């Protein structure tokens, strides 16, 4: 007896999952360890930038008033009374007729209000006295980088929800964040089900295959920023599966199982969800592969029942697991980024379901093009290895030709706040 | 006295660095921990795929010869003698008039040579006997996935030098790689020089700024796959800098310093390289920012003298450090990926040097466009935080207009085997 399931569109399935999204608790991590996390608060400037009036060049700090009369015919001489590097502070207040040698980034001495670039003066010495000669007038403020002119203290520079890249980290350091507020990483448990599964180090034996899905998902979870726990594999035995899954739920923020969601005689997941008292959000999605992807919730905790087929498992994880993990981490770019690309292959046969084809998207002359990675027989095996995109071919009555504009979901991009139709 | 340095083109600078590239020693890591490393060997199929003749569907395994006479008018009845799930092996060899109930992925029983899909039979029982009724003939091999038809044992599926993505990891698991050969991660030491530098947790004081470069580079190194060591900061004191740098070189595969490479009075790096006996590969590059970027080699070990200016430091790290680290890790895609994009801003002023402008590249309708991230005053501070690309504007006598095609180096992409002009 084959159970009848009602397929729902991909979009609706994603929405049903995302209703259970909430950000993880906020924790602080050391600046050294915050890479690729998401800011849980706006990044604020804790000081003015520049933090003091400073010199943008190597040169001399002067009192503008001393240069008013200066010209080629009537050069003005100033005595250099001090030399200051970046990080040191002038000890002397400039008096009439004096200048200070100043390095890039150093603070102006008291009394100074203009900077003269090194190239614009002549230097000479008179005994132990250092003299500079100026041949044009300078105005108050000339070449000075004024305190706060770039950014005022308290300004929000980067919004919460932004991923911490090297550039963001530079800002965090600049503004004194030796500890950084971020959201907790989601802990994601992974169980593979199926009597046919072997551990990786086991020799192949008749009827058996190695458990590749767990490791693939582990990698997908890490890439999304989560903390995977490999719980191992389970035989097709209802009681064993039920107890193991029940126990695992306690230890994780999200639980993923692979296999057992179809309508075969050994597909126990539907019955396990029922016995757990979990609410099934959907058990059929109008897509290929992965149509049997099932998601349930138990007290608000999501249980993802992915297909045991590697490609379907991969797609289910990217489409449904990724966005909820990203949102748990506080990202504002939860979903795979959808772009338009020029198709470099033929799909003559129409398909009633939306297809998600493992593909390679490449740029050429500033335009994105895409072709499937599984074009030949061995592509069945390697198509996931070469894919950086999922081509999204809508279901319907027509095929697709070379040169058509199609949509692709990019697997390696930061992501998008919006879902896709 | 200002030292005269001869600028060389970016391309030539990269080439001079890459002459010292060599892959790190090979080590094996656990499958669980190999993410984002690069395969040090081709990934080989350790078995045929499929590993045995198997059923791609839920259905029944039969002997084709028993169905030869079957038709709508003359249905053939077969007795179901066994039921096998994936992972179990049939105990019974099929005899004349028999069939085996078989699940997706299970191995064909001996004697069987065709699969009949579940939907194509009628089932009934006679007492304890299970019977299926077939109304058409099947040929030998119908719906059988034959051993080795996708991939033969020994086939190289993924080439060495490929990054380990979730899809590659799935293949590694499938083919029994519980340990994975990869190249050692490069250990990269980072020293910031400059008396003006404060630690992150220190309060600002006159003339001082916080050491943001070390943390930014730490993040860039991690992103490139290396293992950064933060050695801290050094005052502008020749002897202290010399000894610290000399000691640090022993502990790392590459050493980066920031600051001290210009021609100011406190820029000690050139003299330190000289005292170390290091050969300077270049100390001036025809680019903005980062023209003072200096690279030296000591017994084949590279010493990167990056500018103390954060943007110049960032650019120097991406252009010169990144590719050598990638090559050390065994990647075949060492350099930043260069693409064409439509300029969304004006650069009316020509510049004699090639400019590398911190920019945001975005896709729209399948086309790449780009604009600088530092368009306003506070952009000076935040331009690195928002950048995912470096716009590469060649030096010369003309400016650039909105709508021009320009080149961009994409910071978040996997990279390219080729360098750029």
UniProtKB/TrEMBL annotation, chains A, B:
PANTHER family hit by this protein: GEPHYRIN, MOLYBDOPTERIN BIOSYNTHESIS PROTEIN
SMART domains to which the protein is assigned, alphabetical: MoCF_biosynth
Cofactors (names): Mg(2+)
Superkingdom of origin: Bacteria
Pathway note: Cofactor biosynthesis; molybdopterin biosynthesis
One Gene Ontology cellular component annotation held by this UniProt entry: cytosol
Name of the protein described by the UniProt record: Molybdopterin molybdenumtransferase
């Amino acid at each position: 007896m084959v159970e009848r399931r009602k397929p729902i569109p991909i979009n609706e399935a994603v929405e049903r999952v995302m209703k259970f999204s909430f950000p993880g608790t906020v924790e602080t991590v050391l600046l050294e360890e915050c890479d690729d996390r998401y800011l849980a608060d706006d990044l604020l400037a804790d000081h003015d930038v520049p933090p003091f009036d400073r010199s943008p060049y190597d040169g001399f700090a002067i009192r503008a008033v001393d240069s008013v009369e200066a010209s080629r015919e009537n050069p003005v001489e100033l005595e250099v009374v001090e030399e200051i590097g970046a990080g040191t502070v002038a000890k002397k207040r400039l008096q009439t007729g004096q200048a200070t040698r100043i390095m890039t980034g150093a603070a102006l001495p008291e009394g100074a209000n203009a900077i003269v670039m090194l190239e614009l003066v002549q230097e000479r010495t008179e005994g132990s006295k250092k003299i500079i000669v100026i041949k044009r007038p300078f105005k108050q403020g000339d070449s000075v980088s004024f305190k706060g002119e770039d950014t005022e203290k308290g300004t929000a520079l980067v919004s919460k929800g932004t991923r911490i890249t090297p550039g963001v980290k530079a800002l965090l350091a600049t503004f004194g964040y030796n500890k950084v507020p971020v959201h907790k990483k989601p802990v994601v448990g992974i169980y593979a089900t199926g009597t046919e599964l072997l551990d990786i180090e086991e020799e192949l034996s008749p009827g058996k295959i190695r458990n590749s899905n767990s490791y693939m998902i582990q990698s997908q979870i890490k890439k999304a920023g989560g903390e995977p726990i490999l719980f191992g594999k389970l035989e097709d035995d209802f009681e064993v599966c039920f107890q193991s899954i029940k126990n695992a739920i306690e230890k994780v923020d999200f639980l993923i199982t692979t296999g057992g969601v179809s309508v075969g005689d050994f597909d126990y997941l539907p019955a396990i969800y029922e016995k757990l008292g979990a609410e099934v959000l959907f058990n059929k999605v109008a897509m290929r592969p992965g149509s049997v992807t099932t998601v349930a919730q138990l007290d608000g905790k999501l249980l993802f029942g992915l297909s045991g087929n590697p490609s379907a498992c991969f797609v289910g994880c990217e489409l449904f697991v990724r966005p909820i993990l990203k949102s748990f981490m506080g990202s504002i770019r939860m979903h795979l980024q959808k772009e338009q690309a020029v198709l470099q292959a033929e799909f003559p046969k129409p398909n009633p379901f939306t297809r998600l084809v493992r593909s390679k998207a490449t740029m050429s002359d500033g335009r994105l093009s895409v072709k499937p990675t599984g074009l030949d027989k061995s592509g069945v095996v390697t198509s996931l290895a070469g894919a950086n995109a999922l081509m999204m071919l809508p279901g319907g009555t027509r095929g697709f030709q070379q040169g058509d504009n199609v949509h692709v979901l990019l697997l390696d991009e930061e992501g998008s706040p919006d879902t896709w139709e």
